[in-house]
Each structure stands twice: as C-alpha cells, then as structure tokens.
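Priority: low. Protein: DHA2 family efflux MFS transporter permease subunit. Input follows.
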Amino acid sequence: MTDIVAKPNMARPLTGATLILAALLIGLGNFLVVLDTTIANVSIPHIAGSLGVSVTEATWVITSYAVADAITVPLAGFLARRFGEQRVFISAFIAFGSFSLLCGLSRSLDMLIAGRVLLGLAGGMIIPLSLTLLLRIFPAEKATLATIVWAMTTTVAPIAGPILGGVISDNVGWEWIFFLNVPVAAAGAAGLFYLLRGRREETARSPIDLVGLVLLVIWVASLQIVLDEGRNRDWFAATEIRVMAVVAAIGFISFLIWELTAKHPIVNLRVFRHRGFVVASVTYALGFGAYFATVVLIPLWLQQNMGYTATWAGYATGIMGIFAVLASPAIGAAAAKMDVRLIISTGIAGMGLISLWRTGFTPDMTFLQMAWPMLLTGPFLMMFFIPVTGLCIASVEPHEQADAAGISNFLRTLTAAFAASLVQTGWTNAARVNHSELVGAMQQGSSTIEAMVASGLSTETATTLLSNVVESQSVMLATLNMFAAVALCFAFTGVLIWLAPKPKGPIDTSGGH
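Result:
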C-alpha cells in the first residue's frame, strides 16, 4: 500500500509559489479521478441512446470504472516504491488523459467500457499517490494543510460530477465529459514535470505479489460480471453466470489463502486482526455503498420517469455539496474532541432518515420537494465520511496505517461498484413485480379503456395511455422500494459502528485520506 508518512533523506519540501502551484496540480489530478466516479451517472441515458444500447447495459460505464479503480489501489504502492511516486503519478496523469480521449472517441459500448477500465486503472494509482506527493512537498509542520487540499478535492469532486455531467451532456454531448479531461491532464502532468524536475526519490526493487494481483483481478471481475449480467441472463438459470459465480468463489478463497501466507502480500490482510479496523472499514464500505446506490438511482429515475434533463438531474444530485462543504470544518473539529462513533452513527442515522423521507415521494412532486432531502444529506454525509476514515487508521498499529488506508479505500470503491449493480437489479426486478401486481389488481381496466374510447380516443391510444400509467406507477413504487432498502442498510450500518472499541484519544481524520 502507499506510504503516507514522509521518509528521511527525501528531497526537501517546496516553498512559495512553487509549493502552491504544485499542490494545486496534484490536487487537480485527484479531483479529476474522483470526479469521473460520478460525472457519468447523469449521462447514462445520453450514452445509451447514442450507442444504441439499453440504460441497464450502459451502467457498465459506471461499474467498470469503479472496479478497475479499486483493483489498482494495491498496485500503486508497489509501483511507487519501484519507480518513485513522482514518476508514477505523472505517468498515470498522462495515461488518464489519453484513456479519456479513447472514451470520448468510443462509438460502441464495448469500446467505451474498455476505455473506462483503462481509465480506472490509471486513476486507481492517482488517488493514493496524490496524498503521498502532497505530504512530500509540504513542510512537516504544514502536513495538515496538505491533507486539507486532498480532502477537499476528494469531497467536492463526486458532488460536482453530476452537475458537470448533466450540463455537458445536455448542451455539448456526452463525449465531452471525457474530452474535458484531456487538456486538463496534459497541462497538469506537464506542470508537475516542470515543477518537480530534479527532485530525488528513493526507489527499491521491492517484489510484487503477482499471484495475489491476478487472483484479486479474477474474483473481483468475475463477481462484478455476475452482478451486472445476472439480471440480463435470468441469473443462475444461465450457464455463464453459474460459471462466473464459481470462478468468483474459488478466486476469492484462493486469494484469501494466498495473501495470508505470502511473504510480500499485495494486500496485507493481517490488519483485519484489529476489531476496530474490521468494524470501521466494513461500516465505511456499507455506508458509502448505500449512499452511492442513491446517487446512481436518483438521476436515472429523474430522467427516465420524471422528465428531468441530465442538467437538472445533476443539479438535484449535486445540490448536497452546499451544506457538505460548509459543515466540513465544524465536523472535523468535533471529531477531534468527541467519541467519533457517535458522530458516525449520527451521520448514518441522518442519511437513513432521509432515505425514509424519500419513500414518500410522488410522481407530481416539485424540484424543490425533491431537492430538500438531497440538500440536507450533505452535513450527514460529512459526519459519516470524515471521522470513519480516521477511525480506520487509528485502529491499527502505526506501521500498518498505510495498509489500512489502502484497504479501507479499496473496500469503499469496490462496494460502490457492487452497490451500483445491486440497486439497478433491485430496481428492475421491483418494477417488474409491481407491474404484474398492478395489472392483476386492475379489475376495471377494460371499462377504463372503453370510457377513454368513448371520449374520442382510439383503442390503441387508450391502451397505450393506460399502459404508460401502469408502467410509470410500477417504476415509482420500485424507486420507493429501493429507498426503503437503502434506509435498512443505513440502519444496520449505524448500529454496526458501535461494535468498534472506543478510540483512545482524538482521531486524526487526515490519515484515512
């Protein structure tokens, strides 16, 4: 995993304008990568229509990026030790821009997914190394400022993603959500190459756990295929799904055995011997997964069933950033004084109650009625996000903190990818079940059509209108079902955090980033 503590004998920290500009460019790299986790969410209908595929198929654009991003996190530490943080970061920055160009030029879903996988592989190295580099270039006494730069880009980027994605998709074209990265990444990489030139880096020929990496890729990719394709192939009725499920299970078990016995494991599973880390990291993963499921579902529902454009769906999702940014300083200060378990559980409870609030949504609700719950989500999200990352780090030995940071973020990213698939599956299945139940309950369907025909409509038009009403209601009910399921997940997660032992002393919330 990536080293997060500056080593002795490294190049001296930067100063003045050089420090400020380098910090901004490094933060920009992290911002772009995190931005791309959500910028495509509101663009899925545009992408699906342009490439001639279903919206369900197009959601691979979201999950493929998240999975590839998660898989690369363990590899970033090895590459940094082998070639140096600066070289790897700048190379990944350039690769991110190049693969973004490939995504924008895609004219088929397969090509776009391949580009998103490559984009995720490059981005997975930028996220952990961005903090490492920031801590390298800042003086030791200003390390907190370095973590603030990193934390703000990590927090603001996923909130800005839906807004930018919506505006760009509606007014320019979905391709430009990827083309936008190209000049920014090129300028950022060139600027960093100039500013950091000549700085000495310590490298070592550290061994890579190639077997562990291959097993990780196999079980994660296989499980994601099962989750994404299962709903399209009638789940385990399809031979391919059964085979991939077996491969995922065997791969996961083999991965656990290998990593627990390898001399230089790519993922140090020994940190799971700490109860506090287990509880905090699982809470982190489940809580973020439930949140991410919501920000995937809401834009799709608004565009497909509520008549929203991608721009307004982006506004509806990104509005949470207003209170989130304003509340962050106070929450960070409170985490240094209070039992963070209370702050975390309060944040999760707040998000759970908001999910319950959404179960009262109706098809004729206004933008403001829909936006208020999202707006109020911001502070609760920060109450969860800021202290839980610090708790993950504080729960392990000092020499294990880099591993804990990497593993917790790996689980968070991976769970987000799984959550996106699961909520899509649940939404589709619930809509199908609700549709069947509504049709079965319509005792006066024929008389309704006859009345519509009597008013001057043709039989075909009357049938289509009634069918559309039933379809709209079934999807609305399915959406409410998913909000209820998310609320239950938050309820479980909010209780789970109390299984962690009470932290001894204040939590350093910067460590988790």
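The chain is about 75% helix and 0% strand. The chain has three domains: 13-199, 209-265, 270-512.
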